[in-house]
Protein 1
Amino acid sequence: MGESKSAVRAKIEKLRKTIREHEYRYYVLDDPKISDAEFDKLMNQLKALEAKYPDLVTPDSPTQRVGGSPREGFQTVRHKRPMLSLDNAFSYDELREFDRRVRELAGRDRVEYVAEHKFDGLSMSLQYEGGVFARGVTRGDGTTGEDVTPNVRAIRSVPLRVDSATLKKLRLAADFEVRGEIIMPRSAFEELNRQQEEQGGKRFANPRNAAAGAVRVLDPAITASRRLDFYAYMLLAGDRVPVKRHSDALEALAKLQFKVSRDWKLCRTLDEVLKYCEAWESRREKLPYEIDGIVIKVNDIALQEELGFTAKAPRWAVAYKYPAHQATTVVKDIQVNVGRTGVLTPVAILEPVQVGGVTVSRSTLHNMDEVQRLGVQIGDAVLIERAGEVIPHVLKVVKEGKNRRPFVMPKECPVCGTKIHKAEGEVAYRCVNAACPAKLKESLLHFAGRHAMNIDGLGAKIVDQLVDKGLVKDFADLYSLKLEQLAGLERMAEKSAQNLLDEIEASKSNSLARLIYALGIPFVGERTAQLLAEHFGSLDKLASATVEELSEVPEVGPKVAASIVEFFSEPANRKLVEKLRKAGLRFTEERKARRDSRLAGKTFVFTGALAHRSREQAEELVVSHGGKVASSVSKKTDYVVVGTEPGSKYDKAKSLGVTILDEAQFEKLLASK
Ligand code: AMP
Ligand code: ZN
């Protein structure tokens, strides 16, 4: 074996560097440059080399994210600087009071603040030694926390090593600490709960609990499977902040390739702070993660030090808490909803009530176990909560109704009358009639859903009519709908009918992963669909795969594999697949070729919030049209898309003369052919 050890070492280091860069693009910037398959290939090369030369394996290698066996417990570690909580403000008046106090203590008329999201997760201290990730410690009691290093390592957006040249350029020591928040994005949370439900496990109440649970498990493999994210918001060297301003710290963290929210804002007056709080109050629902408020920090670090701490919290920061989206109301009735897999979900019909600006009149009760756990009956007064776009849920009974009566699961399907079935050991009650119209309706809604085929105009009202009129009997029928048929529906003008047809047509070129997810195979969530698409590369290969072949796919266990095999062995489903093929849907994954190239070669930068889409969606659209998204403005930027409350990127774009688009212009550009 001719290669010298140093040549091998150099080769390994080069591979690691490449992989780190791709991890950064994928997990931090959400802007991958290569396909997942190409990424896996690089990883496998590295794994093979490391297997051959085990003495060259280092803990900062990308292969070492998930490794080691479950542990018996956690060790406690003392924090170099206490991890304090924050004082809360529940009104703008309290914020004004905070500002007055700061200015008074500082003896200044004006104080600059940074306003940023208050991530609803759990705080974490990441310690780096020699530029290499050494330790992850929870907040604990603030003075000491728990060492959860192997679990933190499994979070892909946590860099295992930072670039030493960047450290040098920023004049930062190679031993440093980064504090931030571990969160679970809403989509991951929803998928996790769906999975838990399907597998009969317990639901998590909110993403924060789910994230905390995933970090404090003893087996890092579980953490790895939970899709957590880390957002950085503080940089320390020893017990000091090594830069002049908090905003410098945020910028330095981003340069060191930590994930930093791009939505923080420098505010020169308290009014700007209040505007920021107000702007994000409704917009926060569109964020991919939950925030429970805004953190306001004095920007000048010297002033921060001057202001110091009380026993519990810094005097230089405050957390403005948004009012909780909760309300009390009365359960008028409990009905059941038949889902796409035939599962009956009890739904509380509520006395309509305003929750965070939205009228709520229904709330899911999930399943019979949940009804029993809550002890809720018809007539009770309940506390409900609405988090983000999630359907509201009942938190607890606040007062039992005088004439309360218990809910009983119906013996027959309320839609088709078929006898209801409850499998041994399962929580769910099901309608097993394959032709139940309720199932078809829900399946169509799932098929059209934003994470599936993304046919926006196909909502419940339209689906009801399409199914009731017999125009659509399966997914494939959507693709043969005619304009006259759609225009004949209630609440459907010719223009919207045409729009819907266009959307249906456009959905044909969706990725294979979306199609697999849209089929609604039991236990196949979004992520599994993605992994299946990457592994098999075509629907036909997936449809003919055996349980053994399926088990080779990461994260696919025997239960999922069996469910897929069963789905494709069902003659009705085989027929459906053929119909979809005839309709011209994409059955193969050719990522590069598929992308339409309307925005090819164009680089976009976003600043401020958009009204009609989340930042994430807008970026996804740019990428799917062949464009690129960058996080900062340079001369190479082609367009800066400016929403409301834009940040400094807007000013930079103006000074560099980069083309600036408002939201409407951006939408136009997307729509142009
Ligand atoms: P609380 O737990 O309500 O006292 O709030 C303090 C906690 O807010 C901190 O310990 C952090 O975990 C968390 N937090 C979330 N986002 C931020 C942020 N942007 N800056 C500082 N702390 C934050
Ligand atoms: Zn039924």
Protein 2
Amino acid sequence: MKNAEKQTPLSLASLLAGALGCILYLSLRLLGTDSRGFIQTGHPVAILLFLLTAATLVGLAISLRQFKGTPSYNHIFPADLLGAIGHFVAAGGALLTGILTAVSQADIINILGAIAGILAAGSFVYMGLCRMEKLSPNFNLYIAVVPFFIFNLVSQYRFWSNEPEILRYVFLLLGNIFLMITVYYRACLFAGRNARSIYAFFHCGSIFFCGVCTVGANRFFYLCMLLWLFLDWFSLSPKKAAIPMVLPRKVLTCLNKLEENGFSAYVVGGCVRDFLLGLRPHDYDLCTDATPEQIASIFSKHNLVRSGEKHGTIGVVMGSRVYEITTFRTEGGYADSRHPDWVNFVSTVEEDLARRDFTVNAIAYSPSCGYVDPWDGQVDLASGILRAVGDPTVRFREDPLRILRGVRFAVTYNLDVEKRTEKAMLEQVSLMDTLARERVFSELSKLLLEVSAQDLLRFTPVITQIIPELAATVGFDQHSPHHRYDVFTHIAHTVAAAPKSLPLRLAALIHDVGKPATFTQDESGTGHFYGHAKVGGAMAEEILARLKVSNTLRKQVLFLVGNHMVALMPEKRVLRRHISRCGEHMILMLLCLQEADFASKGTNETTNHFSEIRALLAEIREEDACLSVKDLAVDGHDLMDLGLAPGPHIGQCLNELLRQVQNETLANTKEDLIAAAKEYFAG
Ligand code: ATP
Ligand code: MG
């Protein structure tokens, strides 16, 4: 921000130059003695002034970009008020023009035009009140002004028949069309879509075409339109910028300490994004222009984590948490797909933000300077758009993990991926093969917990790139009356239907990976997948090893995939046996997977099967049932007290007792068990 503030005089100068140029140009056009305008006269002074205005406008737009978000900017453009004035001016223009033309020549077209003018004025007033937050905006009401432009255009048709005026008519035609499109995109902005650049483009176009042909009564109308556009466009600022971030005390301490030492310091990335989304940030990353050594010396009284120092990060331990403070940096590609090839420390936060992956992650905030958002991340957040910072193709090539991160952010925050970004994502997806598997799996794990079936279907190429074995399931017709979906669509629904637990979601993702390889059809054409759980289990083993999944998780997933076809019977005796073999937790997980599997067939089949089993499992738990040898009322010592020597036969006897207890042929009491043990050894 300090940096941006330094540019204020420059921005102000070009702002004033632009405004002056516009005023001069418009005054000359309006007050000029030649009522026919310069298209006919082609007066060199008019052309020169026009070009000057166009050039200063471009300069203005560029400098405003750097200037935006600074306190001075907000001071000069009190957004809501200016925008509202712009709308009221437009309302006046539309109203008067409509009425004046109707009065001057009361034919049917002009009368209709007057009515349209009144309607347009109404909707402009309404939108002005919206800008002042007196009312909430409505997309359709904005669009209601468009018919007015059509009438306005039609009412000028007489230029068309007049040979020397044809050019003027063409310009008016283009000017009005551009104005209509501008209004449409203005409405989009109100509706929360990010359309600022396109709005700006048509805005400039309408100024150009209408500006060069203002004549007669139209001058007043177009002047009003131009004023509206200027005031509205320049005062457009992301709403959220006004809300200061609420930061934890320790984070504030870090920021203050850095600032007291003469450095700039911001919180950045995920925490700003989460705050703007109304979510509670789960960690705070800080960035500063202080070098790692300077950070270390400022926080020398604290314990420091210096493992990331080479990449500019110092961890400052405060209480039970570590706050990572990173020097502003740019970075090279990730040739080893783990660490950037190089990092360069830089002096401005803007340069640091430019290296970040997505606009919504490239916003910085400090209590003293407010938001720094050169990539309009706040607009994207408000519009629900995920957009790469800069050229998406280049950014994904630098670090293909950003593709998967993109999918995760889109899915987690329900964002639409901007078209270019999505195209680049899908085009570059094969580059993900070069990534360190741990990085991929860590992102995949976060993604799986958030993903819906539609998300998985939309981003299928990303998923099959990570698990190529799934590619064969995509579009694989099951030829079964029990399955409406192809295998991958069924998988996608199963993942989404499974509870948000990593073993379950991962198992759901690969549970039917063995189906294509085991597919057969009987004489009636019905598809079967005999043994697919076993085949899938073997494939899962390879997949999980490749993804470098931890041992515990691997075992759980393999169990679930391998057993997902095992029929869990609603019988306590059988369930007890399952529990004693695999543990209650695993049986419950298997039940969840089977339930998700069943619910994802896409047919209307229903069953009480799962709720029955769940009820029985609860009963078993309540009865404190005997689920393992440990739960028996006797142990090995009790048996040895019968005079038996230690050895494997003790364990064998306990297992037999357990089997009988589970079969409910023996009560789990010490007396009965001892009696049964005696019998066992006697027999
Ligand atoms: P979350 O912590 O909720 O997963 P996050 O946005 O904080 O989301 P982190 O992985 O913690 O994600 O990264 C912190 C910030 O660092 C990001 O917001 C982003 O600005 C930047 N960043 C992280 N990884 C990359 C990357 N691969 N390429 C570019 N920028 C990245
Ligand atoms: Mg984070």
